[in-house]
Each structure stands twice: as C-alpha cells, then as structure tokens.
Amino acid sequence: xxxxxxxxxxFVGKPLCAELLLQGNSVSAxxxxxxxxxxxxxxxxxxxxxxxxxWLGALLGVDVVIHLAARAHVMKDFATDPLAEFLKVxxxxxxxxxxxxxxxxxxxxxxxxxxxxxxxxxxxxxxFTESDRAxxxxxxxxxxxxxxxxxxxxxxxxxxxxxxxRPPLVYGPRVKGNFMRLLAAIDREIPLPLVGANNLRSxxxxxxxxxxxxxxxxxxxxxxxxxxxxDGADISTASLVKKIAAALGRHNRSFYFPPALLRAGAxxxxxxxxxxxxxxxxxxxxxxxxxxxxxxPPYTLEQGxxxxxxxxxxxxxxx
Length: 319
Prior knowledge:
By secondary structure, the chain is α/β, with parallel strands linked by helices. It has helices at about 15-20, 55-60, 80-105, 140-160, 175-185, 205-220, 235-250, 260-270, 270-280, 285-290, 300-315; strands spanning about 1-5, 25-30, 40-45, 65, 110, 160-165, 170, 205, 225-230.
C-alpha cells in the first residue's frame, strides 16, 4: 500500500513512517521542517497547513492518508483569538486535505484527533468511551471535534473512508512537554510532592499508538469508526513517578503533601492546569478497537516506560 503521512517528522510521525516501511509499504512523508527520515521514504515539503494548502502532488497514487499534523495544544496561548488559530489548521486545513484526497481517489483517511474531544477529566470509576457525548473544553479540543464532524460529513457525501483515533497522553522516545519535564525532575532526584496523587490516568506508548494507527489504516472493519486507544493499564501519578524512577535507575524522592493544598498553591502561582494534569483522573475504555480490529497493544506500560527512559538517558549522555 502507498501511504501519505502528514506531520511525518514529529513525535508520532517518525516511528510511524519507520514501521510502515518495515512492513513493506510505500511511504511519502509530508512535513514543513527538514528532518532525517528512513531511507526509501519520499519527502514532500508542505508549507503552512490551512484551507488553501496544495496537496494534490503529494496525494498522487496514495491509498491511505494518516493525518497527524495539527496545531497542538498550547499551554500559554498568546493569540488574540486562539480558537480561530486552531480552526485554521485543525479544521479548515483538515477539510481541505480530505477534499483533495477525494479528488485524488484516496481510499481512506485516518485522522488523529484527541481524547480532549471527550473532555478534560473523568470522575471516580468513570471512563470515557467512543459513544459519550463530545464535551471539549478548550479551543484545541473544540477544533478537533469540529474536524471530526466535518470529516464524517465528507465521508457521507463522497465515500472517502474516515477513521478517527482519539489518543490520551502519548509518551515514548522524543516525548516533550510535561512528560519530559517529569522525566528530568525524576532524573535529578528532585523531591516531588506526589505520593498522595492517587488519581488514575490512561496513557498510550508511542509504539502502541503506531501499531493501532496501522490497524486503523488497513483493517476493513475500521472504515467509518471512531476509536479510543491506550496501553490498557491505568496508572496513578504516584505510581508513574515510582516506575519512571525505577526505569531511570534513580531514587524516588517523592513525599506526601495534601493534594488540596497543592492545588491551592498551584492556583495562586498560576499553575493550576499543570497540577490538574498531575492530580486529575482521565480514564478511557478502548474495548471497541480491541473487539472490532482484534487489536491489542504490543508493548506493556513497563516496556514503554523502559524504552522512554533508555532514550532519555542516551540523549542526556551521548556517547
């Protein structure tokens, strides 16, 4: 099969391209930034993604598009109208790509959305599922939800097979953001007030997400479906810190501090959102993809954390 991967030089894109190539597929990589990719991958330069991006040359002969490129969630967004900026890329850019995919006779488009379409958190004993009513709460989540709806309309009008995937927090080699900051703090054995963080969160290792995306791109039963995907092992922040410390070979210096006081202090310092991510629960139930596609994650949570820690150590101490 011939694939076009958008956002190909990104955190998920690079291992996805490598795995597709390993499985004997033809891969074209669309990206704004020049970055080394495996041999035999055709690189297609693409400027800013919006409603007028020209994709037709990149789509020539393509069977499946996996659309990773997006304006990602921004912790501190200084745009005058953040929603409008997210919609330019995540809605209008996606619609434009799908419409041109139809013109190019592409069979299927796999759209990587976000669990933020479901919402920001789950209550005790609650899980997000694909059948839940959408409840995005920030401009990023809203833009992803509007893109999902637009893609479903295009599918109904044209017959383009759409598959939507909503991952939770993705971790693995080359991870950035809060997970990278957590790795760095644990590696330096900084005492963290997280022993009382007994929340439960669903995560997905990048290798598991790559495997799920390929299943969504190739399995006949995936057409027209929306899937949540995870490692299948929910974990508290306290346990996550302990496992990361073990994977890094570091001492876990965490200590107990009342979560309510931690939240109050974070609010005063303007860091409530960061602390909510550490203390809040967000659990998903991914039975649908496992049942429909006979899919199961090839890596355990522990294996994923080990590979992440190995990468972190290597880039901190290059030989």
